[in-house]
Design goal:
Blueprint (H helix, E strand, L loop, with lengths): L1 E6 L10 H12 L10 H6 L23 E12 L10 H24 L4 H16 L5 E11 L2
Helix pairs in contact: 1-4, 3-4
Length: about 150
Amino acid sequence: MALTFLVSEENMSIGDVRYFWILLQDARASRHGLRGTCGEGKVVLFQNTSSIRTYHGGSQGSDSEGGLFDVSRAQFFESSWDQFDDFVLDNVQSGANVAKSIRAVAEPIISSHFGRAYLMSFFSRYANNIARHLSKGKAKYHVLVFALKRKE
């Protein structure tokens, strides 16, 4: 089994994974956003529930005797926000590409809270926020992968 985590750095670089959620919050909170179009209570209630931790390496307090799996391998690498950024030189297109991938994760949460009617404009604002962010430079996030092996 493999477990994959997007991790943050202590210093928030341009590609830090926290920016995915900050820019998503900005799209939600924009003055052209959801305020006035759906109940104010829904906007106030909506909170970013992601938990993002900084990886320092090594195991901290793991119990080697417990559990069903052993970590057989751990790998840390960088990945570009836009998988096509070597071929796409347009920040607007890169913003749209990144927004599509994040939409796959965030759409169920947003649509269940605000309804499907808001999705198109919401993710359009999000893509614009990402494009503006990517104008500062190429963004890469950090990925941590653990390969687990079932204990015998």
